[in-house]
Amino acid sequence: MNRYLDISPEVHMALDAGLPVVALESTIISHGMPYPQNVETALLVEQTIRDCGAVPATIAIIGGRLKAGLSQDEIEHLGKAGRAVSKASRRDLPALVARGADGATTVTTTMIIAHMAGISVFATGGIGGVHRGAETSMDISADLEELAQTPVMVVCAGAKSILDLGLTLEYLETRGVPVIGYGTEELPAFYTRSSGFKVDYRVDGPEELAAMFRAQRGLAYKGGMLVTNPIPEKYSMDKAVIDAAIEQALKESREQGIHGKETTPFLLARVVELTGGSSLESNIQLVLNNARVAAETAKALCQA
Ligand code: PSU
Ligand code: MN
Fold it and tell me: Which of 67, 125, 153, 278 has its CA 20 to 30 A from that of 109?
């Protein structure tokens, strides 16, 4: 095992026994939602995974240690500290480990640590991607590169249209990452079920998903797989309302010269503020929905 990694006793026992485990990220806790809803959601997501018969492994960096499986106190700490906790992407891990610092893991670093721990299924809300205007800013999330090189299945609700969804799909195609629609042929756009873009393949259940992931492993590919699961109909948002909030947030980020790792957290926080928090409930519900699909798929992978 990696000398910087700590696997919690519960996660360790599950992995040893060949039981299903689902990884969860922590940037969504510290940077993706306000306190206290972030902590409530993180705990509810863990409970949802347990109710499905799998074991949750929330991932973060605490005091320079890579953690797979957090205590309630650690989750509470990450949620309360919020944006004071470093958002940790691939390039940040060496500094955080060497300095004994805390870090909230993005999709990228959650994939890295999940893979180190031997966990292959990961549930989240949305992934990073190619930003609008990337042809000049070159702002492309490290999440896409990680999907191309680390063998973890990421279950998300698509990507928010703060990004250029068409370019994000082009990038994933180039890097050989299969984009799967869960019960849909269309790429979901996080708050809404449709985006106008097609996914590569549609699957209709956890067994089919597990079979595809098993085949990818059998082919000895080094990359992962992106599963996009649309938000449940009853929680999906009005496209006009969310699009207006996103346009406004993008305009403010340009005016304020927001760039680099601050861009995504800034846009996410402004969208929640501008929609009066009505997007927060949708966000919470889609994460729970993804947790259920991930747990069922982790179970199907164990039954091989
Ligand atoms: N998109 C969301 N919610 C999130 C994130 C993205 O809808 O919480 C977070 C995830 O942790 C993701 C990260 O991995 O932001 C991407 O950041 P960047 O664009 O800086 O790579
Ligand atoms: Mn970026």
Answer: 278
Query: From CA 194, how far away is CA 184, in angstroms rounded?
Result: 9
- CATH classification number, 127-304, choose in 1.10.357.10, 1.10.3210.10, 3.50.50.60, 3.40.1790.10: 3.40.1790.10
Whole-model pTM over 0.90: yes
Q: Catalytic positions, please?
A: 25, 160
The letter for the amino acid at 81 is A
As averages over each run of 10 residues, the pLDDT of the chain (304 residues) reads 97 98 98 96 98 98 98 98 98 98 98 98 98 96 98 97 97 98 98 97 98 97 97 96 96 96 95 91 97 98 88
User: How many angstroms does the Cα of residue 32 sit away from the middle of ligand 1?
Assistant: 8
The CATH classification number of 1-119 equals 3.40.1790.10
Q: Is 107 in the pocket of ligand 1 (CB under 6 A)?
A: yes
- CB of 25 within 6 A of ligand 1: the answer is yes
Query: Given the structure tokens 């939602």, which residue do they identify?
Result: 33
